Amino acid sequence: MATTEQVAPFATVPSNVGHKLLQFKVHIDEQKLHDMNTLIRLSPIAKDTYENQTRERGFGVSRQWMLDAKSTWLDGFNWRDTEAHINSFPNYKTTITDDDGRTFSLHFLALFSERKDAVPISFFHGWPGSILEFLPMMDILREKYTPQDLPYHIIVPSLPGYGFSQQPPLDSNWRLKDTSRLMHKLLLSLGFDRYITQGGDIGSYVSRILAVTYPECAACHLNFCCMDAPTSVSDSALSPLEAKQLSRGKRFMENGHAYADLHATRPATIAYLLSASPVALLAWLAEKFLEWSDVDIPLPTILANTSLYWLTESFPSSIYTYREEEAPFHGLQQAYLEKPLGYSFFPYELLPVPRAWAARTGRLVWAREHSSGGHFAALERPDAFIGDVEDFMGVLAGESIDAQEGRSG
């Protein structure tokens, strides 16, 4: 039964929830924070080399950036501020029983609406992201709406193996379809018989798998659509910006993909390395935040995400998806989506996919091209990101959206 104890804004659980939800507050033990800071202080930064003098040489994060980040992490960053931001939203944990009888403890953030016709939308993060990606978007929504007029139920889960959700089992392989199945069961447990999915990075795969597999998933919106170039699309179908940014994807596959190969082929080894030093973990994660975006992501945001990974020991259990052949997934015939599909093109995505390509992967009913923003769109451009989702929802509701096929600055 739904608990009746929630009184905070956006915490009134829908009355038809038939599953036990536990209110959850993030609180890391003070000793664990002390230990992390001790390791940061004792972790050396590699000596000066030709390769680490500047990030522009393309060899990774610069030594000076690492020195400055370490100093800020120790003396200018407070994890408790991150905790307070997370805890300012309704947080829940619930136990989901899988098809084989195993139980999984899953964590999610929510903005529950009190409207009877509110549409559930679940936002799925990827790697090296987390629930923190969606906090700016959730800030915007709770400023724009009240619990009485919010048109949506916003659900932001921590994927299995990330953050405060339980990791995959130790005795069997775990795949994206398994993660997707748990997410589906989670959404059904909240009493929803219809929901919408949104995702980027790994979350885009989860979103599409849900939409293709389960009747209850009515539509999905993506800001990442990794796929091979369709032979049926000519270059003339691309906008000038789309055509220009294709070279970015080519450079990524040539020079930026080695990390994924390592995750896929030696996940145990890299997990040992990055579990030994928070500074090493910072270098590994920060490189992606810096190189996969064009809008500067603030250092405190990068430190918060790295701290979340470190304090929850997420890295070893978060890279299981890399063992799957993901590259052409969205373009595969079995992944074709007959349901409504929305797509946002952010030009500094690490693998930019033109609208005409995305249209070959499903029944594309809404798309928008942006002139800035990259892989972490929800962090880089939260207003544009949630604006796209709301416009897509407007199309689903049958409203006339003038910018349905427009381009945005």
From TrEMBL:
UniProt key word Lipoprotein: no
Family under the similarity heading: Belongs to the peptidase S33 family.
Presence of keyword GTP-binding: no
Catalytic center residues: 201 (nucleophile), 322 (proton donor), 375 (proton acceptor)
SUPFAM superfamilies associated with the record: alpha/beta-Hydrolases
Organism: Lojkania enalia
Record-level Gene Ontology MF annotations: epoxide hydrolase activity
Domain (Epoxide hydrolase N-terminal) ranges: 23-134
Entry's Gene Ontology BP terms: epoxide metabolic process
The protein's name: Alpha/beta-hydrolase
Gene3D superfamilies listed in its UniProt record: alpha/beta hydrolase
The organism's place on the tree of life at top rank: Eukaryota
InterPro entries hit by this protein: AB_hydrolase_fold (IPR029058), Epox_hydrolase-like (IPR000639), Epoxide_hydro_N (IPR010497), Epoxide_hydrolase (IPR016292)
A Pfam match: EHN
Keywords noted in UniProt: Hydrolase
